[in-house]
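>> Question from a student workshop board

For tomorrow's exercise we were told to take the sequence and the ligand below, predict the bound structure, and bring the output to class. My setup keeps failing. Could a helper post the expected result so I can at least see what it should look like? The ligand is magnesium ion.
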Amino acid sequence: MTAPLDPEVLLELRGVDRTHGEGPAAVHALRGVDLTLRAGELVAVMGPSGSGKSTLLNIAGGLDSPTSGEVVVEGRALRSYGRSELARVRRRRLGFVFQDLNLIPTLTAAENVALPLELDGVRAREARTEALRSLDDVGTPHLADRFPDEMSGGQQQRVAIARALVGPRRVLLADEPTGALDSETGEEVLAVLRRRVDAGAGGLLVTHEPRHAAWADRVVFLRDGLVVDDGAARDRLAGLGEVAPA
Ligand code: ADP
Ligand code: MG
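>> Workshop helper replied:
Here is what the output should look like for this input. Compare the format with yours to find the bug.
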């Protein structure tokens, strides 16, 4: 008999504090946040506007640094990386999904999606293969050779998500990724995240909609930069009077 293995830890925040600004204008955006994300886990981050959700995600992804505390991605502290190494980690290991589309208008969908891989020296043919797979994942294989201005807003958002998730990256960070989408497309985006997590990634999903948080395995609630609750999504949502999908 072998004991079940503890699922691999992909991301850890240890005692993370973040103060924006200085002096009387200083904002204490995060206060001693501890968070562990394991392979196969989708964690929703909820809380009122200004509670520190975006700061938390930016710090988890190395776009911002803690004032104190530690961020560990796949076993290595982010602050141990040099600037260019950190950029590489962001391009290879982390998938960011933001509300902003920011597709490059002069590149086709497939070229946009392949770009982060090509920046990392992946050969063009292989990058295109990965890009097509990722476009397929988000349900838009037929858009591969279209330019952004030949797509609807929802299609552009899906292509942006395909780009954010292209390749073997395992730490997925999504900051209200459904904000600009109609509800059907929004649900599809969550389904894509869920599939990638079920295939071995880990995801942090900032959302203010309980219906979206219901896709998560658990929910972390932030208030004024503090984690005020960290529990099973279903229990919590039941407490809020929401019905989680079966
Ligand atoms: P949320 O995403 O939950 O709305 P944020 O993480 O964006 O919260 O912001 C948390 C707090 O930090 C807010 O009070 C916000 O005004 C402040 N804040 C965020 N970014 C900055 C910044 N770059 N400079 C100063 N204050 C900031
Ligand atoms: Mg935010």
